[in-house]
């Protein structure tokens, strides 16, 4: 074995023509080849063949008129040939196993303690799982399974090298006091797939022998190095003119406003499983465009979390309307943004994305992939990686869980940050780009904003006529405010401009739905820009509001007894005196109606307002 390994040294520094000559002779090892034939095959003169022959006395010998390769060199030529094409990757392990004879494969099974007969592919998967399931598994394997101290030292030296690839000559120099044992130590590491042997031609067309870590580990290291290098350079904006810009603006707030308006006009039904009834879902979807994002379910979730919607029994009802109507769409969007970024769902990764965004220039285009890679680089040292097989039999190390990947960053930006109006998106020459919008600069609270974001003002003008008719441009007014107008009125005509009529009956129905009449009056004043609402209309509305008959339905327990003495005793017991009373107030009336909803409906039909 030692002679064969020392013979391998003959190939180090060998020129290309010498190796091609050895390769030709290895394919014709029995009979050998003449100098004339070799000259033709290698496209050189016979004199050069004789020179190559004399220059490699340990490899070539003459047998009469033919040149032959020494028998011990034949497997080494095949080994060098394989090393020239090998990348030292996972596929190299499977290729090596597939070419081994049965007896050598059995030796590998014994070394890896495989106690059952398995195929080549299964054995390869077993080795890959033990040595390379994560980047550091091979380090544990070498420390545990490699018996030679020198082999472990050599592996550590290769592992600590930045590139993970070292020329064998350099290793001999490092361990020159034990040079005679270096080849055996390398062979032990190679046979156990801890390192891989590569042969390459250098600039002078000389063979150089290398040993390397697994290619997938080297690629991961290079990715990490490149990512860290990119962090040192500031990301620069690009001067592009995209043909189409996608901007979401305040649509998130507007969509929630539409849902609240629908729920105000007709309560949304919730099943026992907490799901929206199909009929109500279809009602909400009628007003949506195809593939409209975010989904109505996500909007409802946000509204519930913020207290804008609340489930009461089987209904989902709008709440905190007075506070909500005081907020502009921009202010509501800020509340949505603050809630999302401070909620439990907002992890540290999202906060890093937002910090990176604050280092950019607003309204300047950046490549989305470059930015995502930059965010990914912030976490690259904290990640744990595991080996994955991808399409085309390609292997690579991927982060466990995928939380801190560049793909996850892109997903967050293309969904939540886009929906919240923080960024605009565009496609340009097969690449995706983004920019921080004006709204995004406001929401991200840049320390020095180049301008103050102002949402487009609602150019809505409502006309309130003395005959109690209200003319409303329905397409321009905010949906929630339009819903309040519709609750207190009757619609007479519908279109881009709708006409509503307010009567005492319609006004009463609005109050019965739980909406404060002052909200309705405020909307009339807010949007009557050209002229104020007639005083007669406003004063009449106030009169109607003051004349409303309000009642409260309270849950009480009625104690009945056949004995007057028992009733007197109950009232005089000290321990019960705080919870038992005799209703003597004239404004308290008992009802034997056992269904609360039925009683409420009866009272409202009679013109009463039932307060909760």
Question: How would you explain this protein's 3D organization?
Answer:
This protein has 612 residues and is of the alpha+beta class. The protein has five domains: 2-78, Arc Repressor Mutant, subunit A, CATH 1.10.10.10; 86-221, Arc Repressor Mutant, subunit A (Orthogonal Bundle); 244-368 and 406-456, no CATH class; 463-547, no CATH class; 564-611, no CATH class. It contains 28 helices and 20 strands. The strands form seven sheets. Strands 6-13-14-10 form a four-stranded antiparallel β-sheet. A four-stranded antiparallel β-sheet has the order 15-16-18-17, with helices on one face.
Number of helices: 28
**What is the percentage of strand-forming residues?**
5-15%
Coarse structural class: alpha+beta
Distance between the termini: 95 Å
As a percent range, the share of helical residues equals: 40-55%
Mass-distribution shape: elongated
Number of extended strands: 20
């Amino acid at each position: 074995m030692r002679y064969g390994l020392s013979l391998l040294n003959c190939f180090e520094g060998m020129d290309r023509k010498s190796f091609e000559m050895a390769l030709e002779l290895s394919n014709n090892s029995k009979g050998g080849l003449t100098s004339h034939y070799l000259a033709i095959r290698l496209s050189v003169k016979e004199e050069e063949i004789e020179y190559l022959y004399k220059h490699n006395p340990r490899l070539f010998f003459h047998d009469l008129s033919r040149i032959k390769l020494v028998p011990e060199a034949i497997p080494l030529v095949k080994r060098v040939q394989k090393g020239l094409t090998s990348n030292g990757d996972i596929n190299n392990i499977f290729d090596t196993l597939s070419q081994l004879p049965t007896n050598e494969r059995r030796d590998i099974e014994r070394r890896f303690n495989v106690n059952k007969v398995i195929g080549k592919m299964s054995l390869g998967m077993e080795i890959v799982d033990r040595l390379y399931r994560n980047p550091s598994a091979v380090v544990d394997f070498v420390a545990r399974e490699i018996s030679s101290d020198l082999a472990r030292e050599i592996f550590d030296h290769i592992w600590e090298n930045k590139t993970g690839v070292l020329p064998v000559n350099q290793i001999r120099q490092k361990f020159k006091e034990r040079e005679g044992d270096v080849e055996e130590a390398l062979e032990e590491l190679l046979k156990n797939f801890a390192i891989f042997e590569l042969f390459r031609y250098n600039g002078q067309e000389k063979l150089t022998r290398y040993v390397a870590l697994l290619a997938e580990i080297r690629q991961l290291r290079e990715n990490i190095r490149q990512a860290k290098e990119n962090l040192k350079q500031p990301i620069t904006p690009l001067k592009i003119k995209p043909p189409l810009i996608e901007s979401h603006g305040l649509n998130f707030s507007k969509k929630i406003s539409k849902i609240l308006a629908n729920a105000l006009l007709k309560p949304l039904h919730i099943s026992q499983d907490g799901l929206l009834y199909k009929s109500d879902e279809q009602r909400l979807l009628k007003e949506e465009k195809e593939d409209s994002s975010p989904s109505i379910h996500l909007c409802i979730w946000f509204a519930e979390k913020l207290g804008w919607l609340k489930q009461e029994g089987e209904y989902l009802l709008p709440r905190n309307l007075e506070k909500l109507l005081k907020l502009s769409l921009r202010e509501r969007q800020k509340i949505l943004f603050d809630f999302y970024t401070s909620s439990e769902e907002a992890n540290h990764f999202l906060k890093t994305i937002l910090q990176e965004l604050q280092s950019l220039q607003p309204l300047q285009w950046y490549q989305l992939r470059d930015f995502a890679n930059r965010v990914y680089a912030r976490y690259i040292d904290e990640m744990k990686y595991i080996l994955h097989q991808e399409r085309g039999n390609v292997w690579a190390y991927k982060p466990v869980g995928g939380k801190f990947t560049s793909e996850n960053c892109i997903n967050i930006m293309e969904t939540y940050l886009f929906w919240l109006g923080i960024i605009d998106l565009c496609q340009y020459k097969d690449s995706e780009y983004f920019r921080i919008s004006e709204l995004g600069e406001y929401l991200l609270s840049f320390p020095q904003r180049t301008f103050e974001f102002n949402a487009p003002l609602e150019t809505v003008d409502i006309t309130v006529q003395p005959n109690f008719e209200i003319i409303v441009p329905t397409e321009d007014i905010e949906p929630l405010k339009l819903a309040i107008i519709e609750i207190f009125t009757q619609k007479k005509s519908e279109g881009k401009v709708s006409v509503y009529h307010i009567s005492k009956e319609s006004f009463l129905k609005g109050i019965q739905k739980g909406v404060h009449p002052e909200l309705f009056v405020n909307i009339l004043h807010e949007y009557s820009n050209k002229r104020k609402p007639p005083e007669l209309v406003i004063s009449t509305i106030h009169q109607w509001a003051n004349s409303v008959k309000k009642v409260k339905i309270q849950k009480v327990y009625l104690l009945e007894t056949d004995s007057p003495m028992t009733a007197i005793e109950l009232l005089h017991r000290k321990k019960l005196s705080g919870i038992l009373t005799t209703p003597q107030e004239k404004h308290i009336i008992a009802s034997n109606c056992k269904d609360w909803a039925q009683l409420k409906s009866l009272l409202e039909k009679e013109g009463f307002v039932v307060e909760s």
